[in-house]
Each structure stands twice: as C-alpha cells, then as structure tokens.
Amino acid sequence: MSEPLLKVENLRIELTTRDGIAPVIDNLSFQLDAGENISFVGESGCGKSMTALGIMGLLPDRIGRIASGSIVFDGEDLTQASEARLKEIRGNDISMIFQEPMTSLNPVYTVGEQIAEVLRRHQDLGTSQAWNKAIELLDAVQIPNPKARVSDYPFQMSGGQRQRVMIAIALACEPKILIADEPTTALDVTVQAQIFDLLRDLQAETGTAIMLITHDMGAVAEMSERMIVMYAGRKAEEGRVDEVIEHPRHPYTKGLISCVPHIMKTLSKERHKLTEIEGIVPSLREFGRDTCLFAARCDMVEERCRSSRPDEAAFGSTQKSACWRAKEV
Amino acid sequence: MQADTLLNVENLTVRFAVKRGGGWGRKSYLYAVDDISFQIRRGETLAIVGESGSGKSTTALAVARLVPTHSGKVELDDEDFLGLEDEALRKARTKIQFIFQDPYSSLNPRLRSEKIVREPLDSLKTVPEEERQAIVDRLFKAVGLRKEQQRLFPHQFSGGQRQRIGIARALATQPDLIICDEPVSALDVAVQAQILNLLRELQGEFGLTYLFISHDLGVVQHMCDSIAVMYMGKIVEHADRLNLFNNPLHPYTAALLSAVPSVDKARREATKRILIPGDPPDPINPPKGCRFANRCPVAEARCNETEPPLRDVKGGHRVACHLVSDDAKSPL
Fold it and tell me: Cα dihedral angle (B206, B209, B210, B211), rounded to 10 degrees?
C-alpha cells in the first residue's frame, strides 16, 4: 500500500486557558489519500476547526501548540517544519477556505489583486501573467464576465460570488489538499448547492483532496466518501459515510443524525418528537479526562464510561467507534 | 374568511426609501414585501420560507408593527391591528409576541433573567403587580429552566438556555400569536432539537399559533402545518405541508427543495437537482413579468411579459406561475 497523502498520528493540541492547559485535540489519528473527500462533523467546540488550523500551522500564537504527535504530509512532518517552510506550503500545497466569505477577503484590494498575490508569491508569475491567470480562475469558478469582475472589490459581489473568489484563491496553485471550514454555512441553500457542485467539479478536474468541516449531515452525505465525527477534541467515530449513516456505532453520531428533521423522499403525515441530545458540549476544563466525555449526555451510559476512556472498536474494515458499548448501538 | 382564522393579512406592502435610482430629487423605493396576503388558523403554524432578501423577516416585523407598513391590512382576531393607537395598541401588543433569531444579542445583558421575562408584564401592565412573580416562576418551569437560575445574567447561560429565556419572555403576556424569526438558526444542531421540541410542546399546552420564519426547509417540514414560499417580496407558492413537499408546483420551490442536501439515500437518488443559475434581479427595478423568469428553467415568452397572479389550483394549493395547470401539475 502506498503512503497516504496526509497522515496524522496521535495528534495532541493544547490550548493555554485561564484554568490551565486543555487538550483541544486529544490523541487524534487519521489519514487522507490523494483526491479523497473526507468530512469532519460535530458541534461547535469539538475541535473540528482546531484540527484544520493545526494542519495549516495556524494555531493561535502563544496560546495553542502541538504538544505531541505528527502530521506527515507527503513524507514531511509538518510539526517539525520551520515557519518559512510552512509559509511555502500554505496556499500552495495546502489551502483553506473559511466560513465567512464576507470577512475573509480584504476589502481594500480588488479580488483580482487578491488572487494574483497568491500566484506571484508561490508560482513566481509576473504581474500581468498573474492577472491573466486570475481572470482564468474567476472563469473556472463560474463568475460571469470575469474580465470585468476581476477589478471588482469584494463589496461589489454577493455572498456566493465572494465564496467563489475564496475558492479561486484557494485553488490558484492547485493544492493537494483543500480544507473547507464550513464553506456554505453563511449562504442560502441554492447557493450552497452551487458551491458544492463547483467544489466537486474542480476536485474531479484537479485531483485535490478535500477536507470538509461541517455540522450538516446532509452535506456530508452529499459530498464525502468518508467521515470523522469529533466530540470534545476526540474522534468519536470514523467510517465510510453510507455505512455510518446507515448504522452509526457511536451514540453521539446516532444523536447527531436523528436530532435534525430531515426531508425524506416522501413525507409522512405524523411527525415524531425529535431525538434530543441532552445538555451541551463540556467546557475545556473537562477535556482530557480519562473518561468518555460524552457520558454525561449519553442515554447508554454505564459505570466504566465514567471511569475510563473507551478504546476504539473496529467494525468491518473502515468503521471505528470510540465507545464501550459500540456493539450495542 | 374562515371562522377560526386568527391572523388575516391582506395586500400587505412594506417599502423602504432608497437613495439610488430616483434621480432629480425623486425618491425611489424598494418593495421588500409586495402585496402579499395570507391567513393563519388558530393553533396552527404557518412558515414563511425563502432565501435572504426575499422579504420573509420584513413580513414578520410588519405583522408585529415593528416596521411601518406602506399599505394593506393586518387583522388579529378580526381586529384591525395596524389602525390601533396608544392604549388600545398597548393592549393588543400582548397578543403578538416575538422570538428573535440571535439569543446572544436579543437579551439585555444588564438584566437578570427573571427581569427579562418579567419585562413585557411590567411595560404592558395587563396583570396586577403582585401576580407577576408567580407568572415568571411558572414560565421558567414551562421552558425547562430552574428557579434558582432566575437570578443569573444572560452571559451565564448557554445559547440554548438563552433561547429558552427568549421563549419565556414571549409567553409572558399569554399571546395568541408568536412570531418566531429563525428561532434555531444560531444554535448548534443538538440544541436545535431541544428548542424545536419545546416550541411544539408549548404550542400544545397553551394553544399557541406560530408564524415561523426560516430558511431551513428540514426544520419547516417538521414544525409547520402550511408553508408560504417567498421570492423577491412576493408569495410564489402557498400550500399545506404534505402538498408543498410532496408536490412542489412553482419552479422556484422545486429548485429550493432540490438544493437541500439529504441523508436519505432514496431521496438523494430520486431528486434531480434543478439548477437556477445567476442572481435575483435588482429589487429596486423588478422586471415587469414574473420575477423568477430570468432564472427559471422553463420560462416562456409570456413570463417576461405579464406577472403571474397568485391563484388557487387543485387541493387548496396557491401558486403564482403561468405554467402550472389548474389541476396542480408541475411544469417541470
């Protein structure tokens, strides 16, 4: 078997808080193959975005640090790489699009300038070459009349168009990995569908691997082959999307799927009460304890859940669940 | 009009003066809500769905008299709500209450939660002072908060708990109609379920009527008895829940539904994505024909010429599209 494109092993990311040091990512391991599409799901505060920032080397200065573990990208351990090397990789080999297309573009530069900047920095293109490439990229992300729109400022564009510009910037250097952190949360559903189509098409064309961070199970089902469910900084479940949705092996995954009212193929007359997951995600203070952190909200909880952290149990060749009673779920 | 109608909205129009486009000192107007009519029966839930800028929130605000209306009628319990003034208005305000989208900014950070819930009682003065504390106690219990939490300030609560305070506040004056403007969209998925279940329980318990504003069609499908779809200030389709979701007639509704990602494999395989490229036209100069024509996959010449009226078709379905037949067949 060939080496995966990205291999994260036993990653631990610590944040320094007022109450001491908290492991926001606790012993996380996963792999990503070239051209693959993987999703990270979970509520806010579960460490999805922290994983992304850790890989990008963009953890908050002085507060966050990678305490142990490795992130091997293309044979190179990013946790050991220098800041200069990370700068080379960011935006070139690994790039990221953010949730808020309104605030992640610079309001005082034209969108063309912002796309061209990446190209000049990483691909050594000249000013006019980079500008022409920027027009091509705007065309690739299906912005109508790219020749004129390239000189627009972000405020002249709609939310969906701004997110397309973000995608153009992220894909300018044909990265091997694209991290999309809730790329459509701020957008309307029809625009979301367009952005997903666009990402899928571009992925088929360029062979970029996509890491999609989301809380929407529907989006996961639509976009990805594999998924990882995160809870309180730990991996709760991992597996192929259809298998996990068909038969989740972790009570948290099960709750996440059934707590949302989904539109089914044919709607029935009666409506059942939604399954609730009682309570909320634990605070950072409780992260890192040697228990199952989901125990307080779980309806299958038993004694050992409160006394020791569950091991990962494997189901089939791909599905894994960190729950003591995974077999019974 | 049916006997059990609680809210009757007729030809409601809300417009905002805008700077651009008038020229020579003339004002030009943006019609955020353009001549819409609907009714809600007592005890039922009507959803207004649409994308940002479609006018759904403005409709909600106008019904509650939180923005001035240009023309039209809002009747609550056969009483003209827009014409009321002073004391009569204050009395009537107890009947319509609002739950806001953002539980972080819609609660006063300087007030204790008991005071927040009590505030409508204090300012609308419909209940004698000595009874108010008992009402607050009951409301805290009804929305699932503990009595000792009454002394806390908003920042000491989680998002879901704050939304519960917002709901308790809306219930304080025993309203007939509660307008929920995206009540769960700022909350985490797991917490959404708690709030949605609570809203449905309270509806049964207090016989509430909801006007539910949302862009999340999954939530709407779960919560509402009938649904009105808005596009650029107009209602383009209005039907009961099963009709709308199982047989969407307007091409825009169909496109909207087909865009919702689904975990149901059968639905994913059965849905053909209906693409609507481009953006809505300029709302200040809307086209003279159908406002959806420029993005519609089945538009014909007449769609650009005449605006389709909202008309009744089979099965109590209302739709504004030239191409829908009277026996409720979709043009797609």
Answer: -160
- Is residue B1 scored above 70 in pLDDT? no
In A5-44, the residues whose Cβ lies within 8 Å of chain B are 43-44
Q: Is the pLDDT of residue A13 over 80?
A: yes
Structure tokens belonging to residue B167: 């709901």
Cβ(A111)–Cβ(A138) under 8 Å? Answer: yes
pTM: 0.89
Ordered DSSP codes for A12-25 = EEEEEETTEEEEEE
The count of CB pairs under 8 A between chains A and B is 124
Report the complex ipTM. 0.85
**Residue B3 in this model has a pLDDT that exceeds 80:** no
Would you say A28 and A2 are in contact if contact means Cβ atoms under 8 Å apart? Answer: no
H-helix or E-strand containing A128? helix A127-140
Give backbone dihedrals phi and psi of A112, rounded to 5 degrees, phi first. -60, -45
Is pLDDT above 80 for B25?
no
Query: Which residues make beta-bridge pairs with B145?
Result: none
Helices within A29-126 (DSSP H only): 48-56, 83-89, 111-123
Q: Quick one: residue B287, left, alpha or beta (phi over 0 = left, psi -120 to 50 = alpha)?
A: beta
Contact call for B51 and A188, based on CB within 8 A: yes
CB-based contact (8 Å) between A272 and chain B?
Answer: no
From residue B28, alpha-carbon distances to A246, B17, B290 in Å are 55, 6, 21
d(CA B232, CA A65): 48
Provide, rounded to the nearest whole percent, the portion of chain A with pLDDT above 70. 100
**Cα separations in angstroms, A139 against A190, A210, A221, B132:** 20, 21, 28, 63
The helix/strand/coil state of A278 is coil
Average pLDDT of the segment spanning A39-68: 91
**Alpha helices for B211-264 (secondary structure H):** 217-223, 241-246, 251-259
CB within 8 Å of A25: residues ≥ 6 apart? A11, A12, A13, A47, A50, A51, A54, A233
Predicted confidence at residue B20, as pLDDT, reads: 65
Count other C-beta atoms under 10 Å from residue B309's C-beta.
10
**Pick from B194, B242, B268: CB nearest A267:** B242
Alpha-helical (H) ranges within chain B are 56-63, 86-93, 113-124, 129-142, 159-171, 189-206, 217-223, 241-246, 251-259, 265-270, 301-305
Let me know: does A275 contact B280? Beta carbons within 8 Å: no
pLDDT at A194 over 70: yes
Cα–Cα distance measured from residue B146 to residue B142, given in angstroms and rounded to the nearest whole number = 10
Q: Is A219 touching B (CB cutoff 8 A)?
A: yes
Which pLDDT score, from 0 to 100, does residue A7 have?
A: 96
DSSP string, A176-213: SEEEEESTTTTS-HHHHHHHHHHHHHHHHHH--EEEEE
From B128's Cα to the closest Cα of chain A, the distance in A is 36
